[in-house]
Amino acid sequence: MALATDKTAVITENLTDAGLDKKAIAECLKMLDEHEFSALQKFLSDYRKKLLDSVHEYNDRIDCLDYFTYTLKKSLEVK
Fold first, then answer.
1. How confident is the model at residue 25, as a pLDDT?
2. φ, ψ at 2 (rounded to 5°)
3. Crossing angle (nearest 10°) for helices 7-17 and 22-33
4. Can you tell me whether residue 58 is helix, strand or coil?
């Protein structure tokens, strides 16, 4: 765990926990160092959207499995 006094380490740990790879983290740190806050905000927003799209994709798959097991169960009850 990073020390709270080491801001770079705290940011790096947070971005790692969020799933960013080392290259993306370096890019974020560079944007921070260069005060490119708008670019950083867009980068993080785009990454968040990508994660959320992934969640939706997996949710759709779960829904399909739920529907399949429901119909399977119903068809076995009829026989």
1. 98
2. -75, 150
3. 140
4. helix
Enumerate residue ranges in the chain where pLDDT < 70.
1-5, 78-79
Task: Write down how long the chain is.
Answer: 79
79 class by beta-carbon count within 10 Å (0-12 exposed, 13-18 middle, 19+ buried) = exposed
What sections of the chain are H helices per DSSP?
A: 7-17, 22-33, 37-78
What's 20's DSSP letter? -
What CA–CA distance (Å, rounded) separates 61 from 59? 5
Encoded tokens for 62: 């779960």
Angle between helices 37-78 and 22-33 (to 10 degrees): 150
CA distances from 53 to 47, 49, 59, 67, 69 (A): 10, 6, 10, 21, 25
